[in-house]
Amino acid sequence: MISTETRPLPTWFRQELPNMTQIREIKKIFRDADLHTICESAKCPNMGQCWEAGVATFMILGNVCTRACRFCNVADGAPLDVNGDEPQRIAQTIKAMQLRYVVITSVTRDDLADGGAQHFCETIAAIRQTTPQTKIEVLIPDFQGKKESFKKVIEAQPDVISHNIETVHRLSSSVRPQADYDRSLSVLEMIKSYSSSMITKSGLMVGMGETDDEIRGTIEDLSKRHCDILTMGQYLAPTQQHWSVDRYVSPEEFKKYQQWALGLGFRSVLSAPLARSSFLAEKGFIECVKKY
């Protein structure tokens, strides 16, 4: 299903134009520090809104992924060597921007023995040392299911560990052929088995060709793994070479999905057309903590 999307977006996607002066200033901060953000690499529709609020999701381990998921705009290919200075540069940038809450994600690095888990740990440690008050959420890849990699990240004690299921079981092998739906579920289950108090989170895209029954089934699968926070948003094809948009899901339908998830015991659910896994991440964390 290659995208041939030419339809105009529904009215509910309209947003106010961002402050471009502020956007350019923030971009300069990242470029001067030689840092990457998933906001830019994934063409996130919320980039302007988040950056105006001084919030960004840092992407570590470079900006080239070893996988080629059909929904994602991040470049794939042979990645560069890991930059050992990156954790400190991120920590200093967070301090300069005075961020209360940060999300750290990465490209998938199947070329590394631990999938980059140690680099996540070093980044968490650098932030803790520089700005101990900053809350840290990590959005991790599946590390090819390697238990030792997950243990490393858990022992580094971020405040939230997130891993996205992305889509329903039937579509998973087509949309992200180098990943695995059941492996992603096992990631969330493994985290809870090592640390029952660790807050876990996952994200689901809709509008890719799934049915409501499949959406509900995926929400139930995540609930059975005791996932705490769920985000659900509309899939938008980054280019015409990516997986095509099957339908635009209405805000009313997203509210229905939210009620399904809350009814199954999720502590925080963000379900809306423009919801993304890192969007309003601090709000989800606060809601979750209040219910613990």
What features would you highlight for this structure?
two-stranded parallel sheet; 11 helices; globular; 292 residues; alpha/beta; TIM Barrel; 10 strands
What is the gist of this entry?
The protein has 292 residues and is an alpha/beta fold. 40% of the residues lie in helices and 14% in strands.
Decide which structural class fits the backbone. alpha/beta
Rg calc: 18 Å
Order of helices and strands: HEHHEEEHEHEHEHHEHEHEH
Main sheet overview: 8 strands, mixed
Helical content, roughly? 25-40%
Biggest sheet, spatial arrangement of strands: 1-2-5-6-7-8-9-10
In total, the number of strands is: 10
CATH architecture: Alpha-Beta Barrel
Count the helices. How many? 11
What is the first-to-last residue Cα distance?
42 Å
Tally of structural domains: 1
CATH class: Alpha Beta
